[in-house]
Write a structure and sequence with these properties.
Elements lengths: L6 H21 L2 H23 L5 H21 L6 H28 L6 H21 L8 H19 L7 H27 L5 H25 L1 H10 L2
């Protein structure tokens, strides 16, 4: 198998650079962070691209765009200690990434239509909405007034991303649904930890736990997306639509 498409190799490299990033963040070794953190999304994006390039539909392009803007966000946040404006750049990049993922997940929903009663997605969405409301109620009063609106918009965006992932239920293979949904929940967890550490109270483990949950989120979303587009039934459905 081509090295660029080899799952075991690429995920091993991803795990290695993620570990390097976590160690660098925990120990304050910024050069290690600078060397490893950008490679996380570069490796994941490359693996995703070379495994799905023959598909090239709107869903894969949106996932690829989400990975690209996540990379921009990663780079911006590496330098937030130099200038707080870099935090806003990172926030904006991740906002676009969340929107790309959300639209990609909704693409699955609209492509297939309603196949099952939406009770499970509605329940998950309700839980996410309640969590988002009470978390924002506690967080926003502690956020500087100048960035309160961007933080609020981002909170809505990532909650919507989780809801969109939930509504893929019954519209893709179970494996793809579970991977993407858990990935979305880890993304929400990572951003929650980051917000708590930055705005509410310092978390001793934030330096590495934010990276770990973020890395798990991205890799699960990508694995779920690949599982969706490479499933035999999805390939047959796409071929039928083009004939």
């Amino acid at each position: 198998m081509e090295l660029r498409k080899n799952t075991a190799l690429n995920l091993s490299v991803f795990a290695a650079v993620t570990t390097g990033t976590m160690v660098g963040e925990a120990t304050g070794a910024r050069m290690l962070v600078y060397a490893c953190k950008p490679l996380m999304l570069l490796v994941l994006s490359s693996w995703f691209y070379f495994n799905t390039r023959r598909v090239g539909d709107r869903f894969t392009l949106l996932i690829q765009a989400g990975l690209f803007f996540s990379l921009i966000g990663d780079v911006a946040l590496m330098f937030q200690h130099l200038d707080d404006f870099n935090f806003l750049i990172g926030l904006g990049a991740f906002l676009i990434a969340q929107l790309c993922y959300t639209i990609a997940f909704l693409q699955n929903v609209f492509d297939v239509g309603a196949l099952r009663p939406p009770w499970l997605p509605l329940l998950i969405s309700f839980i996410l909405a309640v969590y988002g409301y009470f978390f924002a109620e506690r967080l926003l009063p502690m956020v500087d007034e100048g960035i309160r609106i961007p933080v609020t918009i981002y909170a809505f965006a990532i909650t919507a991303m989780g809801m969109a992932a939930a509504f893929r239920w019954g519209r893709t293979y179970l494996r793809s649904f579970v991977l993407v949904l858990i990935g979305a929940l880890f993304f929400i967890t990572s951003d929650s930890l980051l917000a708590i550490d930055r705005f509410l109270e310092p978390l001793e483990a934030a330096s590495w736990s934010v990276i770990l949950t973020y890395a798990i989120a991205q890799v699960l979303i990508v694995l779920g997306a690949v599982a969706h587009v490479l499933d035999p039934e999805e390939i047959r459905r796409r071929a039928a639509l083009t004939t």
